[in-house]
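WARN no homologs supplied; continuing
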Amino acid sequence: MTVVKYDWEHIRIEYVQGRENEHGLEWPTLEQLAQEYSIPPQTVRSRAAKEHWTDRRSDFSTLLQQKSRDLTLERLAERVSVININAFNVAAAGIKSVGQALLRRQQEGEVSMEEHQRIATALSAYYRVVKQVLSRESS
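OK structure emitted
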């Protein structure tokens, strides 16, 4: 009688972690693996039950989904950070520009209350942007 040895570690890994194909990741069934490796289905099912392959697959899938969410959040956070930096830079440039305009107007003569009000409104708007960016970055 010939004893057949199977690469159980490879078969388990394929079941637990799936395998890549042209469409992404696929999760073979125990029956598919039995057929592909010419192993009696009951032998594969028994080995899988004894080694808790289904639980391992579930744990692996959960971990994979968490890692995917983490990567997605990291990428989004980077994009938001770039947007915040750009908003901060625009607001800082706006504050500088408004300040320079005010100085020029003061040197040219008297600045009307209307101009003061417009300048104050512009400065306030730019300041709110800076404040929002800084509060988001620190949280």
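The chain has five helices and two strands.
OK
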